[in-house]
Give the backbone structure.
Amino acid sequence: MKFAHISDLHLGKRIHQFSMIEEQKYVLEKIENIVKEEKVDGVLIAGDVYDKIYPSAEAVALFDLFLVHLAKEEVQVFVISGNHDSPERIAFLGELTKKAGVHLSQVYDGQIEGIEMEDEFGKIYIHLLPFIKPVHVRHFFKEETILNYTDAMAVVVKNMKINTEERNVLVAHQFVTGASRSDSEEISVGGLDNVEVDVFGDFDYVALGHIHRAQNMGSRKVRYSGTPLKYSFSEWQDEKTVTIVELKEKNNVEIKEIPLTPQHDMVKIRGMFMEVMNPLNFHGMDVNSYLHITLLDEMDVPQAFHRLAAVYPNLMQMEYDNLRTRERREVQVRKEVAKISPQDIFAGLYETMNNQPLSEVQREYLLEKIDKIWKGEV
């Protein structure tokens, strides 16, 4: 059984006031072509279909057209809601769309029923889990101790009644501990919404959404597909792909990536103003790329942004990197650091190194030690 795994379409997204709808239409057509060429049996869409809970009419129309095109190819489509989506809107008409082979996650009610498929190796069950928070799970499992996202996910999985003798695929939208992030995600401060990868041990493949960089988590069977487009300049050197996953017999999973070439790329360039004004100085660069330009001139250039935008119509950001701006940044950093307490500095370092915050016991121990240091007792 072969699947195309995608996520985080963020249809209707705007970046620095630029609408991405035409770029999204272009890349969805690319994905449709990959689905045809790879002859996949199903498409897994792991959440954040839209960029907003209340999507624009053109975003809804674009996704509707995408589903229609996939349905015409007679592939099964599996869609879940992400943290940017309204679970109710994604679930709407779910029973009706099943007849067209489009399976939509329902609002979480404590029950996740596997959708059965079958091939020459036997049965496969696709489990659609919309984005959840601990509060959602506590409502249905009051007798369980659920202190964090990992606890919540463990309870959800335990109550799925998975037949581990068969092959099982989970489509989910969560932040797995250790995932490499970019600037375009919305993740809770301190990583409080992270889930440990071990909770997914019963699945043969976990199609994840939420993190925008394609990557495996712990093993090849737990994977983020990443966004089909770059949504921040922190991703400008990333290669966007569609993940193709093929499940053969039990415990035999093959994964490959098919590159996605955007209509207009996201690019960063640096140089003196007069150098940047001539696109020929940046060989092979499309002047219609979405640009972040860093000027190295020591003096501000009058009307620099507007003059550059006349050459590069999709200029999104411009900044200076010179002695003045570097000194300003250093002063700002020093001011910000001066406001941070020693315990917060240590707590931040601990969390960076261990991918989890200090426990209450550890925090109390830290405060006790710091207090003794200030008093000269250590």
The chain has two domains: 2-259, 266-325. The chain is about 30% helix and 25% strand.
